[in-house]
Design a protein that fits this description.
five-stranded mixed beta sheet; alpha+beta; single chain; globular; 60s Ribosomal Protein L30, Chain: A; 2-methylcitrate dehydratase PrpD
């Protein structure tokens, strides 16, 4: 099993990897399908199902789908160009994209939020259709946005989760137990094994420059969030708080006003900065999702800014270790809030972050696995209940607490020798089972939990 660090961490846009990035990616794939088809097309349509329908407006799924059909991608997204394109499509009721004739698209009739028809493959389902001059559908594909910006067609999903068809990698571990055994037999760390796998597919230069770029985007996102105030869009009137918290923390530095536990506020400020940027539709890195994008950058920033002896030379090891853990979670359970609740998003992010931090603090492979398990275990059962379908409440603060748990988990693991009762594999399987049993109203539908218990929302 191989899942690249550049698949686990993807540069994209907010507010949601599954509801914004995924539909945009699916639309881009459908355009390529249309370009390869012998049929002549005159229009396009889309229908959103399950969680994509219930919380689609709050997650900008409608906008993302239209922009994807207009040729936009998360990696190259430009906000000003996107606004101009949306205005033109709305006014002209037509989409113009390279390699295809002008396509009819009426926002009122050609984009359907289908709350009744449930697609069986995944909670985040969508159907894209191309029509001929008479308006008849001549090409149709069903896509599932399975979390973290990953998209699969109905056929791909039916074929199984392990769709990697590339050449074999040196360390193809599919479980934490296999990871520990391969580390023991090879004498290599988790980061070293993950690096060897990446180099075998992408080359050493790409790994170095790519991981450097990932952290650059993450760190810049933190800095933007720490320097921006105002009110977030969407109608909840949530005020940005990271900037104010950060300024207060800076003012307290070196005074007797700062208690030891204040370091938790630093971590929360870093994480909230990222998720406030995400909620505003800014550029973020899935880690492993947009909704949980603040946990890992906050943990890594905490290491660099607050841990004596920290070194930027360890950033690559942090990211590679975290990606290895994230790959295990995705392969054996889920990173999708619509599939397994927020335990699959913030819980996975905390496990990845705890493992990365433990690694750069000198932890053994056993301690790293223990750190990941502790962090995930104490997110089990966490629901995904975004108020008004927006990735704001409780999501923004939840990332701060996820980072705090990640640091605590790494610290606890380092206090032991790596032996512990609950293996990471058992914890991941428990998360999968819990997600399977969880009521759909707690899985990113905004039909339960805080989403229905906040007055006037």
């Amino acid at each position: 099993m191989f899942l690249s660090v550049f698949d686990m961490f993807k540069v994209g846009i907010g507010p949601s990897s599954s509801h914004t990035m995924g539909p945009m990616v699916a639309a881009a794939r459908f355009l390529n399908l249309m370009r390869a088809s012998p049929f002549q097309f005159a229009g396009v349509r889309a229908s959103l199902h399950g969680s994509l329908a219930f919380t689609g407006v709050g997650h900008a799924t409608d906008r993302a789908t239209i922009l994807g059909l207009a040729g936009f991608t998360p990696e190259t997204y430009d906000a000003s160009q996107a606004e101009a394109a949306l205005a033109a499509i709305t006014a002209e009721q037509q989409i113009t994209v390279d390699g295809l004739p002008p396509l009819r698209f009426d926002l009122k009739t050609d984009l359907l939020f289908d709350y009744d028809t449930k697609l069986t493959g995944h909670a985040n389902g969508m159907m894209l259709m191309a029509t001929d001059a008479q308006g008849d559908v001549t090409l149709r594909e069903t896509y599932y946005s399975i979390g973290g910006g990953f998209v699969m067609t109905e056929a791909e999903l039916a074929a199984g989760k392990d769709t990697d068809e590339g050449p074999p990698v040196p360390f193809p571990f599919k479980s934490a137990a296999e990871m520990l055994e391969m580390s023991k037999s090879s004498g290599k760390s988790i980061a070293a094994m993950k690096r060897a796998n990446e180099v075998s597919r992408n080359g050493e230069v790409h790994v170095k420059t790519g991981t450097k770029r990932l952290w650059q985007v993450m760190n810049e996102c933190i800095d933007r969030g720490l320097s921006t105030d105002g009110t977030l869009p969407g109608g909840l009137h949530v005020k940005r708080r990271a900037k104010g918290i950060h300024e207060a923390l800076l003012a307290e530095r070196g005074t007797n006003q700062s208690a030891p536990h204040t370091v938790n506020d630093w971590m929360s400020a870093y994480a909230m900065a990222v998720n406030e940027e995400n909620a505003a539709g800014g550029q973020v890195v899935t880690a492993p999702t947009n909704g949980a994008a603040g946990v890992l950058p906050a943990t890594l920033r905490y290491y660099l800014d607050h841990v004596p002896g920290a070194s930027e030379a360890h950033i690559e090891d942090f990211l590679l270790t975290a990606a290895a853990i994230g790959g295990l979670v995705k392969f054996n359970a889920s990173i999708s809030g619509a599939e397994a609740g927020c335990q699959a998003e913030v819980g996975s992010a905390a496990a990845m972050s705890a493992a990365g931090l433990c690694a750069v603090l000198g932890g053994t492979v056993e301690q790293i696995e223990n750190a990941a398990e502790i962090a995930l275990e104490h997110h089990l059962g966490m629901t995904c209940d975004p108020v008004k379908g927006l990735v704001q409440v409780p999501c923004i603060e939840r990332n701060g607490l996820g980072a705090i748990k990640a640091v605590s988990a790494a610290s606890l693991a380092l206090r032991g020798d790596g032996t512990h009762l609950v293996p990471l594999d058992a914890c991941i399987e428990t998360m999968r089972q819990t997600g399977e049993d969880m009521s759909e109203k707690y899985k990113e539908t905004s039909l339960g939990g805080l989403a229905v218990n906040i007055p006037n929302c």
